[in-house]
Input
Amino acid sequence: MDLSFGPRYEDFRSEVRQFIQEHGSKSPQAGNSGSKKAMAWQTLLIENGYAARTIPKDYGGYGGSPDIIESRIIAEEFSKKQISTGLGGQGISMLVPVLLEMGSEAQKKQFVGPTIRGEMLWCQGYSEPGAGSDLASLSTKAVIDGDDWVINGQKIWTSTAHLADWIFCLVRTEPTKPKHQGISFLLFKMNTPGIEIRPLVDMTGDANFNEVFFTDVRVPKDQIVGERGQGWMVANAILGHERGSLAPPDAAQSRLNGVIKLMEEKNFAGEKVIDNPVFRDRLMKIQGRILAMKCNDLRLLSAKINKNQDTQLASMIVKLQGTELRHELESLAIDVMGELGLAYGDNPYIKGGGSWQYQYMYYLGLIIGGGTSQIQKNIISERGLGMPREPKIERKD
Amino acid sequence: MEFGLSNDQSLLQNQVARFLKEKVPLDLVRAVAEGRQTDRIIWSELTELGLPGIMIDESLGGLGLGLLDASIIAERLGYGVTPSPFLTSAIIAPTVLQLSKQREDILSKIVTGETRVGIAFNQAIRPAHESGFEIKNGKLDGSLLFAIDSDADYYLVADSDKTIYLIDRNSAGLESIPLSTVEKTRSSAELKFSQVEGDKISDDPDIFDKAWNAGLVGLAADNLGAAQCALDQAVNYANQREQFNRVIASFQAVKHMCAEMAAQLEPCRAMVWYAAHAFSDIPEESTMMASHTKAHLSEVGQFVTRTSTEVHGGMGFTDLVGLHYWFKRCGFNRQALGSPELLRDRAAIAQDLVP
Ligand SMILES: Cc1cc2nc3c(=O)[nH]c(=O)nc-3n(C[C@H](O)[C@H](O)[C@H](O)COP(=O)(O)OP(=O)(O)OC[C@H]3O[C@@H](n4cnc5c(N)ncnc54)[C@H](O)[C@@H]3O)c2cc1C
Output
């Protein structure tokens, strides 16, 4: 047991702190990703190796060698000072890792640089009206015509499709093959003729996701990642990436500190919610669970570095536990505020800019998105505990 | 950076696991629980492995290891619902006596298995019912309920100021009466004092708190093992039992019960490690972590043992299968040294969140 990173890494930590002290004031607020400020910040981060750290220089990254501890230290120091760690989004967090692993040289050169700089925004076109949890049954189809793919069909729940320049999309290209082997992974521009985007308002009141319709959309033949029919494999590499990152325990911890602050505020009668033992017990219960997830996270980190522990189950449970826990945490904040927790929109009494109300709904979405809790439980029981797989039932038609 | 068990720790844990599997099968556990045997033969076997002295200094013949090492043993004892005085004699008593630098003679005899030390801390934690004692001129009068280990040769008892006294089981005026509880793999006693000689060991509340923290981590580790075994049994049983011409493990309701158990339990392993590590290496977090860990493990242990019982259907409820031993083990661990509510409050106090 040794939780220190050693002197070399402590030097590295001082470097990071130095950078934050010098440049931290240039960091944008969280959530304003499209702004000039955010783009300039991203460029600065890449130049100094605090974003795109391990992406080769040829593709626009910093070109550092992969070091899990360095990445961890950067994340820790930035989050301590609440400094932005740079741009996120589906392009950077999901597509780039996949292109680096499975993209062609030309694709890496064309897409990685602009994506990590925030010049090229992406959306993820997987889910369809008839293919949600059962994603592999998707039916949007693409056929070759001359030098192009011609795409017809519909996607749904496509987050940020209305803002995106490009889409990474799963389409059926081999209709006669078994469903998992008939899918291909295509990349194309969102302004291609034949694409129609219809916003879908979600329960937060925002239209974060969309329906996307394809009618005879023509896409150059070479804009495919991997081979024809390998799309499922490519997609799964990304899904793995997505799941673990949906509910990081450090973020839960800092939200918990926010709830404690809320509970310590005095009302008109001079009372504080934190002094109420029932509320305090709810808070402590959630804190205990967050601590368990933080320790689990530490174990996963150690396993990555030292490669001497079997942590398959420990990583499999993160999405399920993390998103449900986070939703409960945000719900506690609402209860702490009582009727004030109902305030929304431009209500003058709203606290924290309405972030509690927003996240309390948003995290319900994350319990569903990226593989629902029930799907997670199927995975845990089948792959983690070795229980029988769900029976396969053939299509009726 | 390394957050996990060392090679030595894994080896030790595997050795103890194999040993318990062979030497303390459920039949023996049952014999102790039903009063046909005592845990003394088990304790003397564990003594051969050096386990009573795991935390006792090498100069006294012990292994000189830390709470993390003791916890991974506690985990195996919980896994096997092994009857033994490990928590009190190997974790709590050595912590008290070594921190207070008292009674090396007793520590040496714990190592050799000659002496067992029970504890009765509930007056300092939360008095049970109307029990309690007073002390005047070094003499104790009153009573304490639910002292842990009815077979002990000495007891460490604490008053409401967290002052700790050592009582010899053979002292004049002491009556020790075994108390029957749901948990039969570890024993409880009522101690009645009438002008009983008390040897003051420590009046430093910090020593009491440290011993309390060590005990909490030990109980949490015991629960981790017990719950893990209950989950393993559920998965095994589900993979064998057939209904409607299929194994019940193929029913999604059963799979999801098991997945939920695993999802709650798996992070607990890292939490117990961390709490044990904090005890020795991160003192400023120790009380908060020990309290949270025991409270959280109590909740998870209760959920897992209950759910595992459900997965077994009627079999789970029978004495025959014996799953109830794990349920009750977690039931004992939940109340001992403070209920989850009490400990969460203690965690809040440790963070200055209580007025
Ligand atoms: C906020 C949000 C953002 C999203 N963003 C995107 C995006 O950018 N791109 C994209 O492609 N998709 C996105 N999605 C879609 C998301 O991946 C799907 O909603 C999700 O996979 C579930 O599919 P579904 O909605 O069709 O529900 P269904 O699959 O119809 O599920 C309905 C219910 O049935 C249960 N169920 C289904 N199958 C099983 C089974 N085998 N066993 C047990 N229970 C089962 C589910 O758990 C659920 O409770 C997003 C979703 C949300 C909520």
